[in-house]
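Consider this one:
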Amino acid sequence: MESISVGVLLPSSTILPISKDFEKGLKDGLKLSPEINAEIVKEFIGQGSLKQTEEACNKFFNYHDVDIITGIVSSKVMEDLSESFKTRKKSIIINNLGGHIPNVKKINEYIFVNSMHLWQHAFTMGKWGVQTLGKKGMFVSSIYDAGYSFSQMFNMGMTAGDPESKWSFSVTPMPAAGELADISVLFPFIEKYEPDFIFATFCGKETTLFLNEFINRGWHHKIKVTGLPFLTAPFEPLQEHLTVYSTLPVTNKPEYLAEKAFYDLGYTTGVNIAKAALASDGTDLQKQLENLHNMFSVANNSSGDELTIVKYDLPANGSKPAPSIVTSFDTFDKKNQAMQTLHGDMNFGWANPYLCI
């Protein structure tokens, strides 16, 4: 194929400029193959709900008649839209941070997932935490961040690390519209359970609220803090020194910053689309994407994954330092057989991609 039409789904976020970064990365990735003439057609999907995403996809199918669709879409939404792509024999590369575990029972060979799979990171922090920091781990979160697969996988990781580990959790109630979570409700439970370490999954301004209150109450002298890469991205200075353990967005590559994750996702998507288009005769684009073997799909799933655990020594009233690599550590297997065990008949959670609030 010498030319390709790409439909791009762009949601909004108050945390990071995710769509702007993704679009720039996509275009930069496509530019690496100047022999391909790529037309970009954009549709904005608000916070990425099922209704908004489905309406945009229908425009791509029925009006724009694009060759391929990509953008920032949650794996949960794609479960409900998967069959429409197979019916039309159109491929989609969905990009997300991995708030939801891809349900291999509900997606098909036309769905490709380009993601850092944060659900795996939660598993690793649970397993590493009980083997390194202590047997008592606690999940603390706002109601928004708790609506993803992080608590499930953190708990599973703890159990995998030590079947006798002790799990507890505390989640803030839903705040009033336009307001931040009431962080204070978490601390009576932290005091009650006295964990060895917490797994904090806040993002944006609620991160700073929680960590400063954690410091104010003196818990930073008693309890270790772990989290996802976005616990410190974006970062605002804290009142006192705090050490946080986390993971790198990309294994063994500290130069890949969480703040630029959506640019990187867009860039790799652009590169993949161009490579597949160059190899395609116009009728086998799905198969050429599959042949790249570098995105998750029901045909291409991997095992033996490892993640890089890092430490941030955050100075009082200072900027975020470079991470110190602690170790490489195994994570949950992405093979279909293993992943089929992660979804029950009932599967609740936010539909929007993580950080799309």
User: Anything to note?
Assistant: DSSP finds ten helices and twelve strands in the chain.
